[in-house]
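Teaching note: in complex prediction, the entire set of molecules is handled at once rather than each chain in isolation. The prompt given to students was simply: 'Predict the structure of this complex.' The entities are:
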Amino acid sequence: MNTVAPTNNDFLLSIEKLTVSFDGFKAVNDLNLYVDENEIHVIIGPNGAGKTTVLDLICGRTRATEGSIRFRDKELTEMKEHEIVRQGVGRKFQNPSIYEDLTVFENLEISFPRGRDVFGALTFRRDDEVVERVREISRMVFLEKLLDKQAALLSHGQKQWLEIGMLLIQDPELLMLDEPVAGMSVSERVQTAELLNKITEGRSVMVVEHDMKFVEDIAHRVTVLHQGKILSEGSMAKVQADPKVIDVYLGH
Amino acid sequence: MTSGNSFLTRQELLGLAVVSLLILVVLPASVDIFRLNLIGKYLTYAFVAIGLVLCWGMGGILSLGQGVFFGLGGYCMAMFLKLEASTPEATKIQSTPGIPDFMDWNQLTELPWFWEPFHSFPFTLVAIVALPSLFAFVIGAAMFKRRVGGVYFAIITQAIAAILTILIIGQQGYTGGVNGITDLRTLLGWDIRTDSAKYVLYFVNAGLLIAVIVAAQAVRKSKLGRLLVALRDKEDRVRFSGYDVANFKIFAFCLAAAFSAIGGAMFTLQVGFMSPSFVGIVPSIEMVIYTAVGGRLSIFGAVYGTLLVNWAKTTFSETFPELWLFGLGALFIAVVLVFPNGLAGLYRSYLQPHVDRLLGVKKPADDDEPASDAVPEAAARAAE
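The expected output is the structure of the full assembly:
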């Protein structure tokens, strides 16, 4: 499967010649994409361009047909999902994916990276370190007053933040967010942009997003995907001015 | 928030005290030995129901084949007792003395190899728990590692229950066939058919049940318990939080199997025989009904649900033998439609507020305020 010789480089994540085909349809086609340290890298593009598939491929949810995904010079395409997570790759889903029957505290606690095997989970103690860390993260994601609340009772935006918090507590080096502000109110959107700018210290963030205003607020670099291939790449100003992008995505 | 860490809350301690009082004091004091033995038999099903609370209620893994593990535990015990009852002296009229009577009737001339270890009592005790757990591990690993779940898993467990029943009935010479293993007399020389032995066995069973309740409670209170609830709800989120989800499911399934097997072994001891009619699809589904009636998330509820359904079964089947099965079906429908949280749900809505007041437990802070209020005002202003 991995016939490609990956190049060694200083990027945190390097995707090279990545292809995935579903029954002959190439959702991602010979893609090369690099993510730098401490970079907020946004992927935009029309529906069906393969944006979410790229995130799925990185986190192991979808298996690549060809090509390589190297994270800190470790090949991810052969690893199991939980192993990829343990390498330091966190993934947030498009719809808020939280444990509705548990409290906000318990949601964050489960994501705390300790006691991840059966025995560890049985003997896990809620010590000061855990409580302290949960409080710290809950402050970051604006939920410190709601720790005892059942997660099902949160608003849509708060659920999105909770899931971001659940990823932050794992302290991943690469955080992948799939449409983090979809369905959020204007004020929630502004808070989320602040949050993302704050958490990018010491880690890289990959975002799939449709909201152009939000992309402008956060993106260090933008990749435009179209039919599984890169249409344009660079700063927001550069891709916005690119006639090809205007043609297929942004519109005249 | 930190109260989630303590092993038993006041309410749970009260629940444990009430259930212990009921099965250790009230029931033995109020019924004769015939009825008590019957209750002891019902309580062996409660082991299965408690396993199902962990596996199905919390973990969302519906097994319609728990009778398999109950039966395996029961058969292990029955094999030991049968060998003890089949001494050469006791069986000297057989053409091959010293082997169980049903083997002789089926023209077997020597004890099959897999019966040999069951001469040893320590081996039998280990096997009662280990064999069903191992079998559950094999099934669990084969299913959960391949991400078979939900309805498919339920159907497969049901198929396994059917296959095992057919196997036991078909291999009459090795298993006693449809009659099962009967005519069990003594345990290490102690006659288990006397009234005094039945009393002792009832209390051993009750003690084991309380131990299993405490063990199940410990699992429920651990992070593993919360993880089971989490993966019932959002399996992918758990997987992408760095957990190997299959291992947790296998653990829950094996634990439920081990509990069921202990119940099965105690069943054999108290009832005096084991047969394929406790292995197949019907008993397996009945066991799920006990859990559902109790409220599938409640460990104590599982015990009460088992007692209630079996009490009703005995009462109605003695009075209206033809109608009983319809009654059971109606009960299951009623539980699903009207009381989805079973007895535990009824307790929470009607009794718990009073109990909490008596215990002096404060009601948790009102959670009814609209969630959006929590957004800090400053941020809202910044958004303008």
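Point out the following to students. Chain A touches chain B through 57 residues (CB under 8 Å). Chain A has ten helices and ten strands.
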